[in-house]
Amino acid sequence: MIASIVLTLCFTGMSLLHQLKPFETLATDKEIMFKQLQSELMMATDISTNHEQLRYYKAGQWFTLLQDQNRLVKKDGYEIYLYDIDQLYFEISDYIFLTLHQGETTDRRIIGVYHESK
User: Fold this and answer.
1) Cys-Cys with 82: which of 34, 42, 72, 102 at CB 3.0–4.6 Å?
2) What whole-number distance in Å separates Cα of residue 96 and Cα of residue 81?
3) pLDDT at 92 (0 to 100)
4) Which of 63, 71, 64, 74 is nearest to 87 (CA)?
5) Residue 112 pLDDT > 60, yes or no?
6) Cα(75)–Cα(77) distance, rounded to whole angstroms?
7) d(Cα 73, Cα 58) in Å, to the nearest integer?
């Protein structure tokens, strides 16, 4: 009798603990893109923008981030970071900001730290 009560309490306790485990959130394409851009710009130099494009120098080569049709791409070459973009806007102050417009959604994030080239 006591053994069945103890087993029932243990089972109930384990069930409750299992339900309390944190939910895993899946990274969205946009979240992955922001992390990739932060990594890309970490070692970049000579960063400049005209607000529609971001140009930078990294590993002996010039690159440009820009909107091509409805995609955020990196050229020289053609690496696609994100699809379904209506408009994007780069800003540089102490940080490098990217503002994305997708349908009714606008998202503005820091993608890098700006430092003057010497």
Assistant:
1) 72
2) 17
3) 96
4) 71
5) yes
6) 5
7) 16
The Cβ-side half-sphere exposure at 107, using a 13 Å CA radius, reads: 13
Neighbour-count burial for 53-62, b at 16+ CB within 10 Å, e otherwise: ebbbeeeeee
Give the per-residue pLDDT at 33: 95
**Average pLDDT for residues 104-110, to the nearest whole number?**
95
Distance between CA atoms of residues 42 and 67, nearest Å: 21
Interatomic CA distance for residues 14 and 105, integer angstroms? 41
Query: Within a 13 Å sphere around the CA of 77, how many CA atoms are in the beta-carbon half?
Result: 7
46 DSSP β-pair partners: none
pLDDT in tens, 19-44: 665 655 667 999 999 999 999 999 99
Q: Looking at residue 1, what is its pLDDT?
A: 67
